[in-house]
């Protein structure tokens, strides 16, 4: 990767046993930790920073903002830590990994509250090693073994849950916690506490402050722009955005509306026609999946070299934090089709809801199980795995609906999207601004809705809906769903175009079966998404181990299984 943090709970000599210092722009050795940083934007406002004070060391890696006029987030964090201890993390804002190594004996690594920057670690070398690149941390494991449960969760759900990875000896720091030399301690920054307040007014004001903070990021500014709600608000909130980019056919309605939005707010617009780059699962893309999530979400990866900007903005997870993506809705039956109403389900089945939101397909998983040699009933397995994850996050939620959202956030499948962007650009993640997270945790689920979000957005700019999303012509969710259904069932009406290119068409057009799964002909009839997961898994393992060590005997047909 272009940007990386890698460290050991040990001295410089221990660090050098695993990595060469000249791989990094800066190496800091403190009382208990040695850490290397590689980042060409090191020291830029709002971005990676380091600081040393006597024997004490601090690093904030990624996007970070602090109160007041301090420009070095690491200096601010270390000085505040000396006064209030780990409570200093409460006011650190952004998408980051933070390390404090203090002579007083308290040394730790922490992610932001929602783990938007992963911290991988292993104790296999004998000393705890940690870092942001799972493959590089994995290289320190002398004899890695495949984690069957992590692999199965990834193949059936598209995400390895909790702390698991595809390798048994490699773990990741849980959501809202700190890593120490020989333990992990939970924090309480991300705990639901529903309250009554002015939901719309507070959201509008906090969005504006979040955008102002991020307008300081350096250089030419760009935006990954869709025709939906979540990215357009950035155009009005950060007028310095000069360029926008959309992946899609030039004549697609999604692209046309994105272009209209860019023109409305004075930005240029570039549309990249979907070709093999949209799906191509090579190492340059799969590396960012970290072996735990689908590279499919990095749909822009093949076009990044053509995006001539320094800072890139995106609207990822606005729907999750501000519009209730993981909450369970009531539905109504219309001609054997279940239509969401926009109102909350009073007594949801949390396992069933999360299976649906993660996109679990019973038929596809059954076919996968029949073509491979895992020897596990997928339905029972995924239900048990999700139930375990609900139990693990139970203390953070005050209701079933918030428990659903908490599990969804802590296992967010689309995070590789941001991981890749933040390695290619100075990438801003506005949806996880500390003030917006506080709004999310305090606003009851029935108020975290698209309606609330849009009302807040129109207070910022009353013309923000001049060009509506092509598949959402109405303000009411149920009206959009009913029109979608009617258009699909009525021969004379054109259906809403999907916002994304068709995966099956591209997969077949560029002969991905032959290019990536030629030795696994027995899986060629699986759905494209499941085949891409198989490719992701093998490619990620092979990018840091020898092919023989990365082999997955379970992928052989059952009659040829070796395990």
Q: What report would you give on this structure?
A:
This is Asparagine synthetase domain-containing protein. It comes from Haloterrigena salina JCM 13891. This protein is an alpha+beta fold. It has 4 domains: 4-186, Aminohydrolase, N-terminal nucleophile (Ntn) domain (Glutamine Phosphoribosylpyrophosphate, subunit 1, domain 1); 199-323 and 413-489, HUPs (Rossmann fold, 3-Layer(aba) Sandwich); 348-410, no CATH class; 503-560, no CATH class. Helices cover 34% and strands 16% of the residues. The protein contains 21 helices and 19 strands. The protein has a 6-stranded antiparallel beta sheet. The protein has a 6-stranded antiparallel beta sheet with strand order 4-5-6-7-11-12. The chain has a 5-stranded parallel beta sheet with strand order 15-14-13-16-19, sandwiched between helices. Strand 6 and strand 7 form a beta hairpin. Helix 4 packs across helix 13 (378-392). The protein is globular, with a radius of gyration of 23 Å.
Summary of the model, kept short:
The chain has 21 helices and 19 strands.
CATH class of the largest domain: Alpha Beta
Indicate how many domains the architecture comprises: 4
Inertia-based shape:
globular
Total helix count?
21
- Strand content of the residues, in percent? 15-25%
CATH architecture grouping of the largest domain: 3-Layer(aba) Sandwich
Low-confidence stretches: none
